[in-house]
Amino acid sequence: MNTGIIIQARISSSRLPGKIMLPLGTRSVLGNVIERCKKALPLVIVATSTEKEDDETVREAEKYGAAVYRGSLDDVLSRYAGAVRQYGLDAAVRITSDCPCSDPEIISGVIALLEKSRSDYASNVEKRTFPHGTDAEAFTAEALFRSDREEKRIEIREHVTLHIRRSAGYRKADYITSEPSAGIRVTLDTYEDYTALLAVFDLLPDGFSWRELAALYRERPWLARINDGVYQKNAFTDEKEELKEAASLLKLHNMFRAEKLIKNGKQR
To answer: Could you state, in order of their start, the residue ranges of all structural domains in the chain?
Structure first.
């Protein structure tokens, strides 16, 4: 099976613009993601936009030896489908450029699970047992092209695999570990996240594994407090999902009466 890793990357970001170019250790954030992915598979493709500002993304990708595909800024599903077609892939792994702690062991494990289970999709994100920021999703080209045909909503297409994940007609498999460390957050969305990552990359050796990362957080629990207040933005397929998440956030901030109104479907 001809499999490649596709890293979605763009300069623009709503909460932390230009984050993929921030220095982290001896490389940029994007450079770290590429180097880690190359340890899992030789073919690493950075899928970015055709916008002028992403010329910089292309230069950075090529600097670290990645192939490049350019497509729609917002329709990321079409960007992935185009990259898969251009490089003749039978399967692909989705990695996001804000995950500089991506782990080649996890990536290889997800690919192996996809092949062994003969699934359409395999990941470590549906049943989360690994640190948030070591996400890896593998899928067949056939499943990707099918979702590209079926899904019309741009807000869902922006998240690439959401249609597959939420649809019953795809075979799916979960990659999990018996050493759970899902409470760790090492993805990059905010300056608080960047501060935590700077500490991680300063305290651990280059090329550290997710197990070394988990051990560090056990030894130094103060690390988790740096960005424990950051809200992870989610994607929703319908109003019911959004309201459920809104109720959870209200409860988190002790707004129990408002939470009750949403749960009961009432409005003032």
So the answer is: 3-174
